[in-house]
């Protein structure tokens, strides 16, 4: 797969503090790339380097195989976490100004703004001042400004904060649509459920170092623990639980079910296969549930960070 | 370059549309001219007040010498007793009573004259009374010694020293004052401009930080461009405001007197009061002096120092705005701006006027932070070209340095939230 963006060995120091330590990432074209990490890990610094707001002390950044240059500003759309607009400036003027700063011509910018304002049904806001709008409303305007110049690379830092669920969904759909139209998206967030839902690639940064990167499915495969969630209907739950615990590593689990069954999480050793387990269980009772426990990104996140801590 | 233009345009429009800015632009000249009018008017009222002074002259020599004028009416109560005269002054609420006792000798008399009044007496009136008595006594003394007053008056010589430079040009005695006024006005104007528009720049930087729009913008433009755009855009707004003030002020000064007829006469009296001591020739010399000032040099250096001084300070203002989160926090960094400005003004108004080419004046007109103001004040007095050159080169160098310095602070500061940086931290930012 071709990479749209490559960061190679980026290091950034602020005085004695190292904000980024030899970080490399590869963002495939057309992917939604989740940039994860606890607070203060260095995500924002990395994003600022990609946006040419800060220059790395060492390392280099390539966009479309070209070293990053000021001209690339128009290829990138950035919605920072700390975002806002001029309070006393009218919505339309402001959007036009920001679009022109990105390098769009005035008429073109106007046309596209009209399209987006109609799409979000906010055309009547054009002459309002930002201070008259709610936070969520202002964020819609910011989103439009971010994507207006049709950048190849979109960078969203906590894009859903401040949105109500309806608008968050609207934005999510827009992001997916932009991806389908060919844009590549970098997505930095703490909200793991949206990562799970949207991202196909992730990189995990902790304490200024990258500790994990790859396709979400590959990472999940690497982190699968051969654990299965099982529900078995028997006469005596406790007896079966004791018996199973002799042969496997099991623990009680909890999930919704109709019957009063024995609910367990069973972890097999490396050689064990699901079929062996299933065969064994079928001799003990009626197997009502049997599925693999796939590690959630959230779990992987916590696990990796605790291990590296 | 296009982006810089966009930023300048936005900043300019944002400043100019601001309600306070519009109000200041149109109200200030009104307030200013109004103040002048008020002061003139008040002076006229004061001048017009008529005081009644009662004379109690036991000698009977002076009565005819006190002549009623526009401001003083004299009443002679010498026929009454002193106490009755005093009482009637109090009862009729007159201004005061001049008591001239009968003494053996003039020298004794000279020191025993008294003025009774409830108010603290107007110095002008008192001096007037004194001079009448003193000239009468002097004349009497001359006569007693057998001197002819007519001869003495004829032999009195009025001396007025004419000032001329070595090129043979005559100058008025006012020459120094004129230079002082020109230099002082230029220096003061620069200081006001720096403080007003520098603050505006600082506020607009803080606003962008507080609104959190800064990161959106600097993902499109370089922080340096944004900073320069702000400084330039705000300056243009400032120049526009100054221009409007100038035009409006001029119009008002000429128009208002005609609207209020009374005030017009007020201004004229004020003028005629100041000038009568000077002859026509003197006034002409003053005009000549103004024309003889190195006007070309003056205007050129005014623009150069004005612009450079303004840039020097406004970049500091921008850096301070970037370093803090709100205006309250900016106070701690104001000292580096206010101190040199004040120093410049004080050195200008005290030292330069006293000795425009002395060591102190020369040194302060070289030091970059004070040089714009001090040099502007010195230039009307004639400064050797090499001094101007050195001062300008130093200033120019420090502008480059200061803009570089400010840009560094600015670049880091605009992305720092939530903490109040110390000077130490600011210097650390330079290395980021």
Question: TL;DR of this structure?
Answer:
In chain A, 35% of the residues lie in helices and 28% in strands.
- Helix-strand makeup class of chain B: mainly alpha
Q: How do the helices and strands follow one another from N- to C-terminus of chain A? A: EEEHEEEHHHEHEHEEHEHEEHEH
Radius of gyration of chain B: 31 Å
The secondary-structure class of chain A comes to alpha/beta
Strand content of chain B: 5-15%
Q: Which architecture of the largest domain in chain A per CATH?
A: 3-Layer(aba) Sandwich
Our measurement of the CA-to-CA distance between the termini of chain B, rounded to an integer number of angstroms, reads 26 Å
> What is the helix/strand order of chain B?
HHEEHEHEHHEEHHHHHHHHHHHH
Mean pLDDT of chain B: 82
DSSP strand (E) fraction of chain A?
Answer: 25-35%
Ends distance of chain A? 32 Å
| Morphology of chain B | elongated
What gyration radius of chain A follows from the Cα positions, in whole Å?
Answer: 24 Å
**In total, how many beta strands of chain A?**
14
CATH homologous superfamily title of the largest domain in chain A: P-loop containing nucleotide triphosphate hydrolases
Widest sheet: strand ordering of chain A? 6-7-8-3-9-10
**Helix-residue proportion of chain B:** 55-70%
Number of helices of chain A: 10
Number of separate helices of chain B: 18
Protein model, in words:
The complex is a heterodimer of chains A (309) and B (432). By secondary structure, chain A is of the alpha/beta class. Chain A folds into two domains: 3-221, Rossmann fold; 225-293, Alpha-Beta Plaits (2-Layer Sandwich). Chain A has helices at residues 43-50, 91-101, 106-119, 135-147, 165-180, 192-198, 216-223, 237-247, 274-282, 297-308; strands spanning 3-14, 17-28, 32-36, 58-63, 66-67, 76-79, 153-157, 184-188, 201-206, 209-215, 227-233, 249-252, 262-267, 286-292. Chain A starts with a strand and ends with a helix. By secondary structure, chain B is mainly alpha-helical. Chain B folds into two domains: 2-35 and 175-429, no CATH class; 49-138, Periplasmic binding protein-like II (D-Maltodextrin-Binding Protein, domain 2). Helices cover 69% and strands 6% of the residues of chain B. Chain B contains 18 helices and six strands. In chain B, helix 7 runs antiparallel to helix 16 (371-378) and helix 12 packs antiparallel against helix 16. Residues 262-277 of chain B have low confidence and may be disordered. At the A-B interface, strand 6 and helix 2 of A face helix 1, helix 7 and helix 8 of B.
């Amino acid at each position: 797969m071709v990479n749209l963006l490559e960061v190679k060995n980026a290091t950034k120091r602020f005085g004695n503090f190292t904000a980024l330590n030899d970080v490399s990432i590869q963002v495939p074209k057309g992917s939604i790339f989740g940039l994860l990490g606890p607070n203060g890990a260095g995500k924002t610094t990395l994003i600022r380097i990609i946006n040419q707001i800060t220059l790395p002390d060492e390392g280099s950044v390539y966009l479309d195989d070209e070293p990053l240059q000021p001209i690339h500003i128009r290829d990138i759309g950035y919605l920072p976490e700390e975002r806002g607009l001029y309070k006393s400036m009218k919505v339309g003027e402001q959007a036009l100004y920001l679009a022109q700063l990105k390098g769009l011509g005035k008429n073109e910018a106007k046309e596209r703004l009209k399209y987006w304002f109609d799409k979000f049904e906010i055309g009547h806001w054009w002459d309002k001042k930002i201070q008259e709008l709610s936070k969520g409303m202002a964020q819609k305007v910011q989103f439009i400004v971010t994507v207006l110049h049709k950048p190849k690379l979109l960078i969203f830092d906590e894009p859903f904060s401040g949105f109500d669920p309806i608008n968050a969904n609207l934005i999510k759909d827009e992001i997916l649509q932009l991806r389908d139209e060919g844009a590549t998206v970098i997505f930095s967030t703490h909200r793991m459920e949206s990562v799970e839902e949207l991202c196909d690639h992730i990189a995990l940064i902790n304490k200024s170092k990258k500790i994990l990167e790859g396709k979400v499915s590959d990472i999940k495969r690497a982190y699968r623990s051969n654990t299965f969630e099982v529900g078995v209907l028997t006469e005596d739950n406790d007896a079966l639980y004791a018996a199973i615990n002799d042969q496997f590593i099991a623990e009680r689990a909890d999930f919704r079910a109709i019957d009063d069954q024995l609910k367990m999480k069973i972890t097999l050793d490396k050689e064990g296969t699901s079929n062996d387990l299933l065969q064994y269980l079928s001799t003990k009772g009626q197997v009502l549930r049997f599925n693999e426990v796939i590690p959630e990104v959230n779990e992987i996140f916590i696990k990796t960070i605790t291990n590296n801590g | 370059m296009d982006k810089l233009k966009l930023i300048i345009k936005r900043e300019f429009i944002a400043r100019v549309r601001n309600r306070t800015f519009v109000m200041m632009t149109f109200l200030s000249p009104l307030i200013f001219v109004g103040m002048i009018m008020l002061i003139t008017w008040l002076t006229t009222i004061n001048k017009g007040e008529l005081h009644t002074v009662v004379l109690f002259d036991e000698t009977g020599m002076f009565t005819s010498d006190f002549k009623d004028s526009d401001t003083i009416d004299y009443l002679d109560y010498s026929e009454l007793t002193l106490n009755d005269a005093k009482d009637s002054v109090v009862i009729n609420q007159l201004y005061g009573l001049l008591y001239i006792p009968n003494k053996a000798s003039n020298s004794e008399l000279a020191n025993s004259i008294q003025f009774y009044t409830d108010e603290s007496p107007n110095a002008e009136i008192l001096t007037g009374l004194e001079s009448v008595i003193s000239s009468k006594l002097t004349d009497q003394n001359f006569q007693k010694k057998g001197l002819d007053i007519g001869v003495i008056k004829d032999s009195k010589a009025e001396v007025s020293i004419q000032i001329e430079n070595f090129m043979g040009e005559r100058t008025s005695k006012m020459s120094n004052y004129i230079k002082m006024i020109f230099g002082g006005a230029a220096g003061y104007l620069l200081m006001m401009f720096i403080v007003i528009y520098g603050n505006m720049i600082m506020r607009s930087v803080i606003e962008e930080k507080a609104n959190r729009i800064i990161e959106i913008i600097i993902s499109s433009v370089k922080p340096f461009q944004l900073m320069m755009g702000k400084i330039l855009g705000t300056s243009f707004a400032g120049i526009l405001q100054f221009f409007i003030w100038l035009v409006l002020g001029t119009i008002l000064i000429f128009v208002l007197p005609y609207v209020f007829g009374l005030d017009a006469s007020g201004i004229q009296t004020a003028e005629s009061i100041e000038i009568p001591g000077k002859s026509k020739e003197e006034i002409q010399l003053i005009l000549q002096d103004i024309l003889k000032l190195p006007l070309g040099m003056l205007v050129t250096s005014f623009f150069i120092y004005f612009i450079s001084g303004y840039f020097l300070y406004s970049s500091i203002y921008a850096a301070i705005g970037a370093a803090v989160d709100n205006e309250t926090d900016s106070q701690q960094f104001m000292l580096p701006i206010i101190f040199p400005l004040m120093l410049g003004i004080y050195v200008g108004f005290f030292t330069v006027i006293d000795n425009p080419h002395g060591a102190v004046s020369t040194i302060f007109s070289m030091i970059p932070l004070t040089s714009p103001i001090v040099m502007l004040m010195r230039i009307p007095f004639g400064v050797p070209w090499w001094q101007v050159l050195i001062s300008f080169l130093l200033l120019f160098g420090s502008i480059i340095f200061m803009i570089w310095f400010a840009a560094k602070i600015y670049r880091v500061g605009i992305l720092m939230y939530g903490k109040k940086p110390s000077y130490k931290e600011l210097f650390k930012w330079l290395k980021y």
